[in-house]
Amino acid sequence: MNPQALARSRDFDHRGRAWYVDRAVTVFVFIGGTSAILFIGGIFAFIAREGLGFVFSEFDAGEFFGSIAWRPTSALDATYGALALIVGTASITGLAMVVSIPFSLAAAVFIGEFARGRVRETLKVLVELLAAIPSVVWGFIGFSIMNSLIIDLFDVPIGLNVLNAGIILGLMAAPIMTTIAEDALKAVPDGYREAAEALGATRWQVIRKVVIPAAKNGLVAAVLLGVGRGFGETMVVLMASGHSINLPDSVFDSVRALTATIAAELGETAVGSDHFRALFTLGILLFMVTFAINLAADTIMRGIRRKGERGRP
Amino acid sequence: MVGDVAPNGGGASADALSAKVVVQNLTIRYGNQVALRGLDLSIRRNEILGVIGPAGSGKTSFLRALNRMDEFIPGMEVEGRITFDGRDIRRVRNVYALRSRIGVVFPLPVGLPLTVYENVALAPRLRGVRKGSELDEIVERCLRRAALWEEVKDRLDSLGSLLSGGQQQRLTIARALSQEPDLLLLDEFSIAVDPVTTMRIEEVLKELKHEMSIVLVTNLVQQARRLADRTAFFLTGEHVETSDTARIFSGIVKDPRTHDYIEGRFG
């Protein structure tokens, strides 16, 4: 062997700086990557420890899901009926979706399919800016502007209600849904659009017959993530919903949401008391619902679908 | 019989009257770059017009201009005049109706994210065919004519994108035929297709020209020789010449560069 090659093969046993940097970076990104699992597990364990204690002692499923009597502070007969809270959250989220789905899908189609050049870039930046508005600011808008607007427009005594919180929450969820939906539309190859236009399809026909079906998974995921966002949102529903325990008859009734209840009451409970642990049970419920929604969104986004699922109509 | 005289003796002036498409002084730019310069050309009825030339010669830009597909390519500018059946295509009020009469086959098969059946049924649906039996009939006819029916008749409901490359390209031809076009544009259709399938499609094209005009843009000089009635040679945006294919390939050319190209001396 020539001496040069011999010298170089001596490096086989020498670990230089690059080797150690590589190893350090590997460890660092491994910790970063796996910490998500750690946190999810940790959070769930923490909530479960407090909440499940309640579930196994005081918990009465019939009362929890069937009664609206949320009276945790009653000295004589504390009851923990969460029905009104569940309905409150569901009605606000439902209305929010009615507001935000058409809005954000239309916005995504406009930005993704119709707008060009500078208009498109400007809109995208603005939508992302909207998504960055803190929820307390949205809550403030609901509390002050929307409140008086609803009172004036509909001639009702109070403007902090399902309508107010639903609209504000919808506006708040719309930018995120728009951004994700627009990404889904952008992922549809241009070749599809060209091929469909070459067939003589109008812009709208191209979008309806080709682009939206192709982006279907991403669009559904966008909606689900919006739902998950609405479900877990706290500040807006605390400020704009009226925060009163009530099964709403109309959108003009005040309601109270699960999240807002936890936020408002947790600070006033004794650690380890039934009330404290009942709030954690609400947390378990929220956690499971949002987890299920996000999991569904993720599964759909991965495009799990059966081959040839669509037959002839 | 008295007065029974063929009105068109042939030649350029006859083209202007009877041609399917007449292109006059067509210039295409992308920003500062000129893709095609001052093209004069006509496409006759029931002919296959071969368009040959090396990459970047303006062949695809020419096709795009024919069905106004330039409109969604930012920066593509088209000047000059193109008439389709005597109508200036810049002045038609419904561009979608124009496009629906022009079938396009792209270099790489674009199977829309639909079933085999729906790929072919889309264009008829767009023009308002609703009846299932009528659609079934159109789909079968178009697939048969694209020499694909036998291979897919049992899997019409599976996704078009699951077919092989050659099958997908025949699917796009079937889809183009479902428009009932009178002009068919093929842009290097055989790039992603095996030789056997290529020959089958070529046979199909020979049949189709009895019903429509066909523009065949191709990288394969021999393909133009096999199929085209006339062949146009483009070179870096310049239309060098168009002539009967038989003449060009027997060495009768107006410009020596054409001869060099078909002999494989450059490009």
What is the name of the CATH class of the domain at 19-101 and 221-267 in chain B?
Alpha Beta
Looking across the biggest beta sheet of chain A, what order are the strands in?
1-2
Which value, in Å, is the CA radius of gyration of chain B? 19 Å
Tell me how many strands of chain A there are: 2
Count of individual helical segments of chain A: 13
Low-confidence stretches of chain B: 1-12
What proportion of the residues of chain A form beta strands (DSSP E)? under 5%
**Most extensive chain interface and residues per partner:** A-B, 25 and 38 residues
Sheet with the most strands, sense and barrel status of chain B? 6 strands, mixed
Quote the average pLDDT of chain A: 88
**What shape does the CA trace of chain B take?**
globular
Fraction of residues in H or I helices of chain A: over 70%
Fold topology:
The complex is a heterodimer of chains A (313) and B (267).
Chain A: H1 3-9, H2 17-56, H3 61-66, E1 70-71, E2 79-80, H4 83-114, H5 117-131, H6 135-154, H7 162-186, H8 190-198, H9 203-214, H10 216-232, H11 235-240, H12 258-265, H13 274-301
Chain B: H1 12-18, E1 21-30, E2 33-43, E3 48-52, H2 59-66, E4 76-84, E5 87-88, H3 95-100, E6 102-105, H4 116-126, H5 132-145, H6 149-152, H7 165-177, E7 183-187, H8 195-208, E8 213-217, H9 221-227, E9 230-235, E10 238-244, H10 245-249, H11 256-262
Parallel strand pairs in B: 3-8, 3-9, 6-7, 7-8
Antiparallel strand pairs in B: 1-2, 1-4, 4-5, 9-10
Helix pairs in contact in B: 4-5, 4-7, 5-7
